[in-house]
Every structure is written in structure tokens, then in C-alpha cells.
Design goal:
Number of strands: 2
Number of domains: 1
Strand order of the largest sheet: 1-2
Structural class: mainly alpha
Order of helices and strands: HEEHHHHHHH
Number of helices: 8
Helix content: 55-70%
Oligomer: single chain
Largest sheet: 2 strands, antiparallel
Length: about 190
């Protein structure tokens, strides 16, 4: 409970800094009726803000996920998260997951640390609106790796299957942020 309150206060502080500090990029006072041309598409400033808020909210989701990655249980059971998705999978999917299990088996703590650092970096970049290109494509790559390994492509697909896994949806959120120019508003200065 106390940890959750700490995370929430850190996230809200980060958002407050990104929105209200002198280091915010862009005009201090905006006219929401003003239209801006961006990549040949006319959008209102309020539309830019909506995408920026989506970016920040998505960063909070990644931040919560990153928090769980920093827990000792994640480091101690990293390989089992991958092997747990093997049951009932088709041969090709099992081969793919086994490849990752063998790679991770070399040093599971290193790979767990790498995942925790990557998810934390993605969360911070989304919240503060920095490093848009690397955050987008790195986030897409990370989401696809998670979806294809720990989530086993959302399978096994048998009678009673209800979804294709959550991580693949992250790819579409990253693409929406990219095409919506979510880094143009409410971000740190360069």
C-alpha cells in the first residue's frame, strides 16, 4: 500500500513537472482554436494535447509495469515467465520460446535487469515526451518480444481462447502516438 502511494506521488510529480515547469516546450498560453499544420494535416491544439495526455497515461502504465519488474520475485523467476508460456503451444511457437529461454539461461539476472531498465526508460520517455523515435520503435520492439515470448503470441489458440494477449495492443498504441505526433506538446525542451 505504501509503495503504491509512493509510485502514484512520483508519477503525479513527474506529470506536474512536465506540464507546469519552465522547462515545458511550447507556448505558455495557447489558443485552442488556433490550427497548426503538422505533416500536412491540420489539427487543433486541443487534439495535440489529447495525444500528449495519451502518451503520458501510457507512460504511467509502463511505469507501473516497470515497478513490478524491479521486484526481487521478477529477478528470481525471470526464466519461468518464459517457460510458463510453453504449455499447449504449437511446435513453431515452442521453438521460438525455447530459443529465448536458452539465450536468457546464460544469465537470467542480466536479462531481467535489462528488461527492468528498458521498461523504466520507456516509461520516463513517454511521461516526459523525450526521445520520440527511439521510444516508439524501442517500445514496439519490446512489446513484440514480450508478446511473442512471455505471452506466447497470446496462445495457445484452442476452444475457449478469449484474446490474443495484451502486449500486441501496445504496438498499436505506440503507432497511434507516433502518427498523432504525441511528442509535439507537453514535453521537455531539447
Amino acid at each position: 500500500m505504501c509503495t503504491g502511494i509512493l509510485i502514484a506521488s512520483l508519477v503525479f510529480t513527474a506529470i506536474k513537472v512536465a506540464l507546469h515547469a519552465d522547462i515545458v516546450y511550447g507556448p505558455a498560453k495557447e489558443n485552442f482554436e488556433t490550427r497548426v499544420a503538422t505533416s500536412g494535416i491540420l489539427r487543433t491544439m486541443s487534439e495535440q494535447k489529447k495525444f500528449a495526455w495519451l502518451r503520458i497515461a501510457f507512460g504511467v502504465v509502463w511505469g507501473i509495469d516497470a515497478y513490478f519488474k524491479w521486484q526481487p520475485d521478477f529477478f528470481e523467476n525471470f526464466t519461468s515467465y518464459l517457460s510458463g508460456s510453453l504449455e499447449g503451444q504449437p511446435l513453431l511457437t515452442k521453438s521460438w520460446i525455447n530459443l529465448w529461454i536458452h539465450m536468457v539461461g546464460v544469465d537470467p539476472h542480466f536479462f531481467a535487469l535489462l528488461v527492468a531498465i528498458a521498461e523504466t526508460a520507456i516509461a520516463l520517455a513517454l511521461i516526459f515526451g523525450v526521445a520520440s523515435r527511439i521510444t516508439t520503435w524501442g517500445g514496439i520492439a519490446m512489446s513484440l518480444v514480450i508478446w511473442s515470448t512471455a505471452e506466447g503470441f497470446g496462445g495457445p489458440y484452442t476452444a475457449g481462447s478469449t484474446d490474443i494477449g495484451a502486449a500486441v495492443m501496445y504496438v498499436f498504441v505506440f503507432l497511434a502516438l507516433w502518427f498523432g505526433h504525441a511528442w509535439e506538446d507537453m514535453r521537455l525542451k531539447r
